[in-house]
Amino acid sequence: MTRPEPAFKILSLDGGGIRGAFSASVLASFEAQFGVRLVEYFDLIVGTSTGGIIALGLAAGLPAAEIREFYRTQGPRIFPPLRGGRRLWRLVSSVIRAKHSQGPLKAALSEAFGGRTVGSLETRVVIPAFNCNAGQIRLFKTPHHDRLTRDHSRSLVEVALATTSAPYFLPGYVSAESERFVDGGVWANNPILVGVVEAIGYLQVPADRIHVLSVGTTSEPFHLEPSVLKRGLVGIGLGALRGQSVELFMAGQATGAHGQAKVLLGRDDAILRIDTAVATRRFALDRADDFEELRGLGEHAATSAAPAVQLFLSERATPFRFDGVIRPKRRPGVAGPAPLGPASNTD
């Protein structure tokens, strides 16, 4: 009898600003409960925005507890609390410029990642962003396929800045090559579909082998005040100040991506989603004071999900490590199957 093929396991991490403390706490709890390094158990990690920071950290070999600590210590620097007159001034000035500076985030990422590059990561990774120059989506990837030759030398700091530059909250990131990026959350805040398509389309993994652990950043009942839609651009602007416009785009994309991924995989048990429902407007994307509560919610969610998550931690993934050699791109039909779709800026 032939041994069945092992499961191909994907870890998908949502965006959500400082609410990434919830996700990091979930993962830190799993590592502590099961005595494992999560990076050794997943064949592919995808993460958007704050989830991109966590994905890069895990793949770089950082313990999830250290990534959680990043949110506790660096959160107040990245999103400094504002009260009284300073808060009002920041709210007014955010009409014409980003609410926060990118400098503290860049400094914090530099401390965390140092000079590490995408090619140094310990497992396959895909990080969504959006290229404003080209008007196209951008996926930063480890060189896990012969066609993927562009990103191995990029620094983790640069990739993290590209995926976390959320409009309104942070200015867009401009690379040394004058590429202008904004947050991957504008199109893939829940990157589960990105991961599934990468596995099926690029890596030629059969859908029935794929299992996905999808971790959110807390969710709230969706509510859109009628004025947001009735007042045209003014309504959208007011909705943005209240956080409603952002939630509208995030909720629509997240539910669509989850549903499409489920259809592609064709099984009800293919996806394990971990998230926690909270009260409307309980957590802001940039309020660092919420760390302790987010941590507590994450630990509770991890405890509840522990029996189900054992499926992902029962067997280590096949090790992946870039050997430093960029090989010639394969032509369709010459050396095995080619990935789906043409080569483009979205690779």
Write a structural description.
Helix content is 41%, strand content 12%. The protein has twelve helices and eight strands. Strands 1, 2, 3, 4, 5, 6, 7 and 8 form an eight-stranded mixed β-sheet that branches.
**Shape estimate:** globular
Distance between the termini: 38 Å
User: Low-confidence spans: pLDDT under 50, at least 5 residues?
Assistant: 331-345
Q: What oligomeric arrangement do these chains adopt?
A: single chain
Report the sheet with the most strands, covering strand number, pairing sense and barrel closure.
8 strands, mixed
Mean pLDDT level: 86
- Tell me the number of helical segments per DSSP (H or I, 4 or more residues long): 12
SSE sequence, one letter per element: EHEHHHHEEHEEHHEHHHEH
- Classify the secondary structure makeup into a structural class: alpha/beta
| Strand composition percent | 5-15%
Provide a short characterization of the protein structure.
The chain has 347 residues and is α/β, with parallel strands linked by helices. The protein has helices spanning 20-34, 50-59, 64-78, 84-93, 103-113, 156-164, 185-188, 192-202, 226-230, 232-242, 244-265, 291-309; strands at residues 8-13, 44-47, 124-131, 136-141, 173-174, 180-183, 210-215, 271-274. The protein contains 12 helices and 8 strands.
